[in-house]
Amino acid sequence: MAAIELKDVSKRFGNQTVIRNLNLWVEDGSFTVLVGPSGCGKSTTLRMIAGLEQVSDGEIRMNGDPINHLPPGKRDVAMVFQNYALYPTMTVRENIEFGLKNKKVPKKERQQLIEEITAVVGLEAYLDRKPSTLSGGQRQRVALARAMVKKPKVFLMDEPLSNLDAKLRAQMRTELIELHKKLGTTFIYVTHDQVEAMSMGDKIVIMNEGEIQQATEPMEIYQQPANLFTALFIGTPPMNIIEKDKIPQLHSHNKDIVYVGFRPEKVVLSNEPLEGGLTLPAEIVNREILGHETIYQMEMSGIPFKVKHYDHPLEEGMRLFAYIAYKNLYFFDREGRRMEVEENKADLQTVAGGVRVCP
Amino acid sequence: MITVEKMLKIVEWTGLAVITLIFVFPFIWMMITALKSLPETVVFPPEWIPETWMWSNFKVAWSSGPFLRYFFNSLFVAVAILVLQILTMVPAAYAFSRYQFPGRGFLFGLTMAALMIPPQITFLPVFLQMSEWGFINSYIPLILPYAASAFGIFLLRQSFMQVPEELIEAARLDEASEWRIMWRIMVPMARPVLVTFGLFSFIYHWNDYFWPLVMTNSDAFRTLPIGIAMLKDAEGGIAWNIVMAGNMILVIPILIVFFVAQRQIIRAFVYSGVK
Question: Is residue B220 domain-resident?
Fold first, then answer.
């Protein structure tokens, strides 16, 4: 068990800076997910914690002690790779045993540990098989077993589920969550998939271009995005962002507000304008029926936005009013930073079917 | 009816048979000659089947010199070279394929240059150096100049480069030393290549005539090919049947090795073709 701290960590490859002054606190026993688009530096961050990459600047600490200088094998971490990285010439047993042998664990203890771990992941029947004869899910389990058998202080996982098919991925997701609960060890998990991040992490770290955009609990990220990037990254479809000037229904004295956002699932569609929120007259131009929900592509005088509904599908071409409650509106400044505009109703006034914002 | 496909198959098989015959014929001829009596080897037209099978030719060849000594020398030299080559090429190939260090390109270029220089060019300076050091008439000049194989390093480096980096990283996280990564992860994955190289090296040095001829001048260190070549010089005219029997003695160990390792060799070629 260990807490990990990154202090002012930077990483440069040649003269290209991939990570800039990163500060991160990973709590002991947490399931922390690093998420972001490809090239955002999440994998590099993980690899620096593992010791597979050297930091260019800054310090990585485990339980307060710097570990920068330690080689990967001495950091008490275990890693699960995207393509599993099982040793193809060794059997499942040898794969799991390799790290223990290197640590000079006595044979009896090794056998006991292997039995223990294989029972947990359900691999008893495959111990003498080579990885090439196993299915993707089984290989994934071998990779997990190999990591678990070392009883590391921190588990590092680099997109471990992305090579599995959708059904197996969902199943392994649940298994990993359960495993985390059972072991109580710190998990640091890298993914580009926001669904994985939201469903697995108890803390999500959203990264972009080598910087942390926001690091907090999943619901907080959904409800209180720190900036445009986070707002657009979490949620399917992503939050609608419209320039404030293009919404005549919205009046505000606050000159700093440049963008207005609202989530597609927070929009109420009605035949008449409703009071107490922003009401946009719009037309359904397209729809995607997904069964339990329908996503509408709507347009209000040339401005497109999306709406997600769970009701019976509405027809294309219908003219409706899209209503968003005050509390579901988000405001952003020119740099894309979220602005905490008081949700107090006294500050927001309706003006002819629109909203007046007076912070 | 003979279809076009059948015709093509017949042509193909005939072609293959002819080529096989061209390759195999000298070998068969050697085998037959080794079992003939001396007059039979020179009759014209040549006889296909010997009148009596002269198995004694082998005994004559074997006992016409210290052949046990030659045999041991050949085996010792070929095996020692192979062992040293593997001990040097595995770390070299690992370093060239995975490490970034100053001068890597230059050193690899040097290795490649060594690959292109035949022993016929280097034998004289090597001989002079060895005699200067007083090593002529020992195993050292037979073994040491071949202790590192540029070809082997190149071949193994290519094979090591195919190993995914994650495997090495996983091993490092498993607290494996670089030495262990080399021998427990990399070498087993390059097994087909190593087997192929081992065969090439063994056969080359087992058969090598030129280098041992230059570097030795006493029976104590001569190898089998030289001993067999000396059969030609024995007592007046050339006894071809005895020479061929000697050649058979030379070839049989190689055939045994080849049959044992056949599957590995074929796999090695299939692997290098697919990947």
Answer: yes
**In A, which residues are within 8 Å of B188 by CB distance?**
89-90
Length of chain A: 359
User: Could you give the CA distance from residue A291 to residue A305 in angstroms, rounded to a whole number?
Assistant: 21
Q: Distance from B162 to chain A by nearest Cα, in Å?
A: 13
Domain that holds residue B101: 65-230
Distance CA A140, CA A121 (A): 10
Residue A13 near chain B (CB below 8 Å): no
Assembly ipTM = 0.82
Cα separation, A55 vs A19, in Å, equals 9
pTM score of the predicted model: 0.81
Closest approach of chain B CAs to the CA of A39, in angstroms? Answer: 18
Q: Which long-range contacts (CB under 8 A, 24 or more apart) does B184-188 make?
A: B184/A87, B184/A98, B185/A87, B185/A89, B186/B90, B186/B94, B186/B160, B187/B90, B188/A89, B188/A90
Q: What is the pLDDT of residue B84?
A: 97
Closest Cα in chain B to A156: B173
Residue at B268 is within a domain = no
Average predicted confidence (pLDDT) for chain B: 89
Domain count within chain B: 1
Q: Which region among A162-166, A181-185, B205-209, B236-240 has the lowest average model confidence (pLDDT)?
A: B236-240
pLDDT greater than 80 at residue A348: no
Block residue for tokens 């995914």: B164
Read off the CATH number of the domain in which B150 is found: 1.10.3720.10
- Report the pLDDT value the prediction gives residue B23, as an integer from 0 to 100: 93
pLDDT of res. A347: 47
Q: Judging by beta carbons within 10 Å of its beta carbon (0-12, 13-18, 19+), is residue B76 exposed, middle or buried? A: middle
